[in-house]
Amino acid sequence: MSTQWVLKTKGDPLGAVHRFIGAAWQAAGLEALVVPTSAKGQEHVLTDTAGLGEVNPFQPLMLMNTAKIIPEVLKDLKDGRIGVLLRPCEMRALLQIAERGVIQAESLFTLCVDCLGTFPEDELEWRAARKGSKNGLTGEALQFAPQGGISAYRYRAACQMCVSSGATEADVNIGILGLPVRQMVLVDVKNGGLDWMAITDGKADPALTAKREVMLAKLSERHTRTRERVISGLMEVLPADVEALLDQFENCGACQICMDACPICTVEYPRQVKGRYRREDVITWLASCVGCGMCEQSCPKSLPLSIIFTHVKQQLEQALML
Ligand code: SF4
Ligand code: SF4
Ligand code: SF4
Question: Of 78, 110, 124, 125, which sits with the fewest C-beta atoms within 10 Å of its C-beta?
């Protein structure tokens, strides 16, 4: 059973979320927190709360799927309880990795944030230059959280088609979508056993929870419509089935950059036989795809991998192979 709590933001939602994560960190007795980075070279692992000020899970930029590094990070952090702060597609990847027995998700303290969507890196740089700072873009994105976000058509294709941009699967899910974030954000707690009353501003009004659920449903419909529209527009050029996708990979030669960027391949790399990927490995990969789009973001041929993989996955589902 989950419980819903509220954080009063007093015009500064990012600051309120920082304070809440700091308080949850102390209450849960974490040794470290793995965080998404919003700039190249920024540290992914914080060992004290002082670094939280630099963490911005709402920045409309995703440089990598943070779940990808968690198995390695956990090898170095064997003692104490570890927290992870993730976006929804990173949380989905973490659960896929845990399903393979590489990590124990239940031993982690998981926090997830609603995601407003992310820009391609060059688009973000261009917008930041016009705005004067990247932080300004976060403020702009958060301003439109009550409407479910802005600039949807400029976001990465994966974000425009995201299967779920709402935080729902972590121990602690921080909700902003559909909410008046300059006044308050929602904290939906599934597990964690902490004194939530002490580290939040009290129980949430059920109307607030309902408002967010309505927005999550709207966004899900919007993303489904986008997926269908894009697939139908590209039908002529998309690989017809998994064999055609294997042909595509054969044409790619030695390049494996999309797999190197993928959080699923980190723990289960598709194998090759005589230069061709094994059909069953690629089917398993696609079945576990969490739709983060990091493959597409890294492809040197700029192939629309988000939609290619979604389409082939749908073909497999229709053929009842998944
Ligand atoms: S794919 Fe979804 S969860 Fe991931 S960054 Fe895009 S909108 Fe956010
Ligand atoms: S295949 Fe692409 S979209 Fe799917 S999980 Fe891997 S990187 Fe993300
Ligand atoms: S990154 Fe692009 S070019 Fe490289 S293997 Fe993947 S699909 Fe082919």
Answer: 78
Indicate if 170 and 300 belong to the same structural domain: no
Q: Please tell me whether residues 130 and 265 are part of one structural domain.
A: no
**Domain check: are 41 and 190 in the same one?**
yes
State which ligand 3 atom lies nearest to the alpha carbon of 257.
1
Residue 231 within any structural domain of the chain = no
Residue 98 to residues 80, 102, 263, 288, Cα–Cα distance (Å): 19, 6, 12, 12
* 215: in domain: yes
* Ligand 2 pocket residue status of 291, Cβ below 6 Å: yes
Ligand 3 centre distance from Cα of residue 207 (Å): 46
Q: pLDDT in tens for each of the 322 residues of the chain?
A: 899 999 999 999 999 999 999 999 999 999 999 999 877 788 899 999 999 999 999 999 999 999 999 999 998 887 789 999 999 999 999 999 999 999 999 899 999 999 999 999 988 889 888 888 777 888 888 988 888 776 667 899 999 999 999 999 999 999 999 999 999 999 999 976 899 999 999 999 999 999 999 999 999 999 999 999 999 999 988 998 999 999 999 999 999 999 999 999 999 999 999 989 999 999 999 999 999 999 999 999 999 999 999 999 998 888 876 6
Show the CA angle centred on residue 153, arms to residues 155 and 265, nearest 5°: 40
Decide if 322 is inside a domain: no
Residue 125's domain comprises 3-224
d(CA 93, ligand 2 centre) in Å: 9
pTM of structure: 0.95
Closest CA to 86 of 69, 72, 67: 67
In short, whether 159's Cβ falls inside 6 Å of ligand 1 is yes
Does any ligand 2 atom lie closer than 6 A to the CB of residue 97?
no
Q: Looking at the domain assignment, is residue 230 inside a domain?
A: no
The domain total for the chain is 2
Q: Where are the alpha helices (DSSP H) in 61-147?
A: 70-76, 88-99, 121-131, 134-143
Choosing from 238, 247, 256 the residue with most ligand 3 atoms within 8 A of its CB, the one to mutate for a pocket test is: 256
